[in-house]
Amino acid sequence: MSAKVAVIYYSSTGNVHQLAKAIAEGAEKAGAEVRLRRVPELAPDAAIDANPAWREHVEAVKDVVEVATLDDLEWANAYAFGSPTRYGNIAAQLKQFIDTTGGLWSKGILSDKPATGFTSAHNRHGGNESTTLALYNTFHHWGSLIVAPGYTDPVVYGAGGNPYGTAHFGSDAVSDETLVAARYQGERLATITARLQAGAR
Ligand SMILES: Cc1cc2nc3c(=O)[nH]c(=O)nc-3n(C[C@H](O)[C@H](O)[C@H](O)COP(=O)(O)O)c2cc1C
What we know:
Blueprint: E1 4-9, H1 15-29, E2 33-38, H2 45-49, H3 52-61, E3 66-67, H4 70-75, E4 78-84, H5 92-98, H6 102-106, E5 114-121, H7 128-142, E6 145-146, H8 154-158, E7 167-169, H9 176-200
Parallel strand pairs: 1-2, 1-4, 2-3, 4-5, 5-6, 5-7
Helix pairs in contact: 1-9
Bound molecules: flavin mononucleotide.
């Protein structure tokens, strides 16, 4: 059985969306079936409209990227989750989705699956690492097999040398180097998942 990767993310202004697409591309390159899914937006229209970049992104993805469901978690045998940094933590929108997974968790459906995380922040030291590690708290509770990039490929250094998960920072567009690292992270997740699947036969 090949890898079936659910790339599930929240993004308000598109940075994490760019990373999610790159992770998905990398997983597909490694032969995985991939579902790229965004979690539902929870913010009121007034908040979204106050930030033109946020409104633009909401409109850009609404008919393009499907909304994540619990079926995606049941279907997948590997997870890549992404969120912007929110005060050093994951966004409420992603947390809300995670907090609907109790039924799957209690049946053991979330366990024993490779999982990885990615994020984006405004500042170089604004909390990318704490956000990724906060996400990994959930993966520990699920009994996931955390597949961090580590320093397993030079592209990790090219993207700033974050071994926990690919991360963008700044107000510019996501760099090519960071997208390369995200593709590598997706490829690594899919490759390791396929190896585990082959070993389980
Ligand atoms: C409520 C809120 C909290 C944020 N907290 C942080 C933070 O702690 N550190 C930081 O560097 N950036 C912070 N940011 C900025 C976002 O993490 C950053 O713009 C990110 O790249 C957005 O990703 P997106 O384009 O996928 O939405 C915050 C933004 C918001 C709206």
